[in-house]
């Protein structure tokens, strides 16, 4: 049994990778999603809810840009140049995780008014809500693909599986 690099990243360097690459982005995204619902369904949203939504939307995109830059340099490029991907499902998991930067950065750019400065509040809210939904879709595709065992789907099989479930590619008995 093997795992995708997505799951390996989260499992390594505990608890730091889990916090930095999963907890922080998910807490920010879930905060945005929940406060977005309050904003969409209430006419008189408490100021703290609107401010929390704006702050989380502002921070999430810029934070995730840093994650994407770091993982591209330290994982994507080395895996690509060395042929280390564990099949298509591994590429999908990592690719969709990194694709989360598009909606998150979009929200940050909306919050800074770098995008949509001339839009009315309704249009900004529609675009913001669409970006929240888009992030949830790409994040869930990444999570589902990331939890798959690459050995179950065509395209990758470890050469040797250790007793603890880890693999040593290239090692045989």
UniProtKB/TrEMBL annotation:
InterPro entries: DUF6803 (IPR046547)
Sorted UniProt keywords: Membrane, Transmembrane, Transmembrane helix
Ranges that cross the membrane: 20-40, 52-71, 91-110, 131-148
Protein name listed in UniProt: Permease
Natural source organism: Cellulomonas cellasea DSM 20118
Lineage: Bacteria, Bacillati, Actinomycetota, Actinomycetes, Micrococcales
């Amino acid at each position: 049994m093997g795992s995708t690099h997505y799951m390996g990243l989260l499992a390594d360097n505990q608890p730091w990778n889990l916090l930095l690459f999963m907890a922080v982005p998910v807490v920010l995204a879930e905060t945005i999603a929940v406060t977005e619902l309050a904003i969409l369904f209430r006419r008189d949203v408490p100021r703290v809810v609107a401010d929390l939504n704006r702050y989380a939307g502002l921070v999430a995109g810029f934070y995730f840009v840093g994650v994407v830059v770091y993982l591209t340099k330290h994982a994507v490029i080395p895996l690509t140049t060395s042929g280390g991907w564990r099949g298509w499902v591994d590429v999908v998991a990592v690719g969709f995780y990194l694709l989360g930067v598009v909606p998150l950065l979009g929200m940050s750019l909306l919050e800074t008014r770098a995008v949509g400065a001339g839009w009315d509040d309704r249009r900004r809210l529609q675009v913001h809500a669409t970006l929240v939904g888009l992030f949830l879709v790409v994040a869930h595709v990444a999570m589902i693909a990331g939890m798959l065992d690459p050995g179950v789907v065509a395209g990758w099989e470890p050469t040797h599986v250790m007793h603890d479930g880890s693999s040593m590619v290239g090692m045989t008995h």
